[in-house]
Amino acid sequence: MFMTTKDTALLLLDLQNEMVDPKGKIGSGGLAKVVEERGVLANASRVLEKARKEGVPVVFVRLGFRPDYSDALSVAPRIEKLKANNAAIVGTWGTEFPDVIKPLETELIVTKQCVNPFHNTGLMNWLFARGVKSIVVGGVVTNLVVESTVRAADDAGFAITVLEDLCASPNPEWHKFSIENILPMFASVKTSASF
């Protein structure tokens, strides 16, 4: 294992039904297929089981909005697509997590309205309050939430490990570019076998 449990947390990013299930409003556009092909959920399940066994704090991050999207922070075109599909509404199946990685009642669920899970969520304070100095991350989409998380965490002084096989993008080239060119500037990139 490459981490110490004392000061490390595991962050699972946007691995929610809307994104990773073929019936999800985002997953149905091809992301769920890539998630399945890459074994992202199976890998995440194994890492989650090990983290729980070793007492590593786990944080589940999800994208979720009010039904009228009045809490949407971004005005980017992707938000209009979410609205048009009535996607990622808090309290719906789409913002829940698949059974294979279902959060325990004691585990933190962070709901965000933007790409960066630290913006306006209290997550950074939660990590600091627990003495976390190192984070291990995985999720979808690699070139969005994973990159955003890693950049913000690096700015805050965290040591970061990205588990490449817990990540995916709907376009494998985006994933590859991020893993090979962007993320190594901020984090160690490993596989779940090293966890």
Automatic annotation (TrEMBL):
It comes from the Bacteria. One of its GO terms (molecular function) is hydrolase activity. Keywords: Hydrolase. Residues 8-193 form the Isochorismatase-like domain. It holds the Pfam family Isochorismatase. The keyword Hydrolase applies. PANTHER family: ISOCHORISMATASE-LIKE DOMAIN-CONTAINING PROTEIN, PEROXYUREIDOACRYLATE/UREIDOACRYLATE AMIDOHYDROLASE-RELATED. This is Cysteine hydrolase. It comes from Propylenella binzhouense.
